[in-house]
Specification:
Elements lengths: L5 H17 L10 E2 L3 E2 L16 E6 L6 H9 L4 E5 L6 H13 L5 E5 L3 H12 L5 E5 L3 H8 L4 H14 L2 E4 L2 H10 L4 E3 L10 H15 L6 E6 L14 H7 L7 E6 L4 H9 L7 E5 L6 H5 L4 E4 L12 H9 L4 E3 L3 H5 L5 E3 L8 H13 L2 H9 L10 H17 L1
Parallel strand pairs: 3-4, 3-5, 5-6, 6-7, 7-8, 9-10, 9-12, 10-11, 12-13, 13-14
Antiparallel strand pairs: 1-2, 1-4
Helix pairs in contact: 1-4, 3-4, 4-6, 5-6, 9-14
Length: 412
């Protein structure tokens, strides 16, 4: 997009003003506001911060209250006086209206959103256009390309949405430096990187015990090399893919009995994986279903190789995903494609495989070939190249960095 056109500002503002001025929120659809003690979502518009000298933030995650993304943001903003809005994904329009009303009170110095959901983003843009409150966006995805990959006809709309969301923001927190660069290119004036961290780290002794228990539960022998992945199994109809599809298809191309695949997650893709697994289901292929966030590292501890399937395009090339920091915490070598992180983060602990996307035959065959030839010595060699910690995924460093970033924005 070129220079900002005041007529475009007015068009956005007028359209959203109609929505805000005519909307009401039913009591049963109201999300909660929390800051240690409960606060009513229907607080008077004239309410002000009791301590006017203390910067006040409104924060929320569009993935929803209580999710891993909200937990991440809570850690990053721990140094600030924050009022938390628990976003209800079952009532997105209600969430939009409530955020608009909260920001209309003018008691917040800055709003921070984790995610790029349309309802939350439009509420922030609307408030900014009316001069009510500046905002910061934290995101791990390139929105326009991602929507285009799922719904091609809507890609151009979300490209514009992403550009305006960044352009109107006071700052952008990217899960990767590539996303920060993207936001700055769109016109966002400030940016910082927070690549994510394991939310529930465990000691080596705890990991060893979890490995024993999970393998015993799944019926996997100690001598078996396990390829695995943890994630949402959302099914992409356009390319017929979900996380784990690459592993399930690859192991079916081999006849080794000392290999196994473990896929942890739930979603529409689970039934598709069951069909592909066929007679290997429950034997060489284990589909556990979803697990709570605090148990993710327990299941990863049972694995020997982690899968990070990302397309080499405007979607996958921008991402790290939450899994990469968890794989590092679980001490897992990783297989992935020829995406930027596979060069930037590799110290010898990654297998970088050919193929433009994890659903392409070339990529699946590359995994299958690795499965056919992989030895324990090769696994251990990769593991020995994995540093005890990577600075990109150090929690304390990220919290310190974002604290300074937000503090500087508040002083502007």
């Amino acid at each position: 997009m070129g220079a900002v056109d005041s007529r475009e500002y007015q068009a956005w503002g007028m359209a959203l003003d109609v929505i805000d001025s005519t909307s009401t929120v039913a009591p049963e659809t109201r999300a909660t506001i929390s800051e240690g003690t409960a606060h009513s979502a229907a607080a008077p518009a004239a309410a002000i911060n009791a301590n006017a000298d203390s910067p006040r933030l409104l924060a929320f995650a569009t993935k929803g209250g209580g999710t891993n993304e909200e937990s991440r943001l809570r850690d990053l903003l721990a140094a600030f006086d924050v009022e938390w809005f628990s976003f209800d994904r079952s009532s997105k329009f209600g969430g939009f209206r409530q955020i608009c009303r909260l920001l209309k009170s003018r008691k917040f110095d800055l709003a921070v959103m984790e995610g790029t959901g349309l309802a939350g983003g439009l509420a922030l843009m609307y408030s900014r256009l009316l001069g009510r409150c500046r905002y910061v966006v934290s995101s791990g995805d390139a929105v326009g390309p991602w929507v285009k990959s799922v719904r091609p006809g809507l890609g151009w709309i979300f490209n514009k949405y992403e550009k305006w969301l960044c352009r109107l923001a006071a700052g952008f927190i990217g899960w990767t430096p590539y996303l920060v660069g993207r936001a700055l290119t769109f016109g966002c004036p400030r940016g910082a990187t927070a690549a994510g961290f394991a939310l529930h780290p465990k000691t080596p002794a705890e990991m060893a015990e979890s490995r024993r228990k999970v393998r015993e539960q799944l019926g996997i022998a100690d001598s078996t090399i396990v390829f695995g992945i943890v994630g949402s199994l959302a099914w992409n109809k356009r390319v017929e893919f979900c996380y784990g599809w690459e592993l399930v298809n690859a192991i079916r191309l081999t006849d080794r009995q000392d290999l196994a695949v473990v896929v942890v997650g739930d979603g529409a893709g689970l039934d598709h994986l069951r069909r592909v697994a066929s007679t290997d289901l429950g034997k060489r292929i284990h589909l556990t279903g979803g697990v709570a966030n605090q148990y993710v590292l327990d299941y990863m501890s049972a694995m020997d190789v982690g899968s990070l399937p990302q397309s080499v395009d405007g979607v996958g090339s921008f991402r790290y995903t939450t899994k990469i920091s968890e794989y590092v915490a679980a001490r897992l070598p990783v297989i992935t494609g020829q995406i930027p992180l596979s060069y930037d983060l590799d110290t010898g602990w990654l297998w970088r495989l050919p193929g433009d996307a994890p659903w392409h035959p070339r990529y699946v065959e590359a995994i299958a070939e690795l499965m056919r030839t992989l030895t324990w010595d090769q696994v251990h060699a990769k593991l020995n190249c994995l540093p005890e910690s990577l600075p990109e995924f150090d929690r304390d460093a990220q919290v310190r960095r974002i604290t300074e970033f937000v503090s500087d924005l508040l002083r502007k």
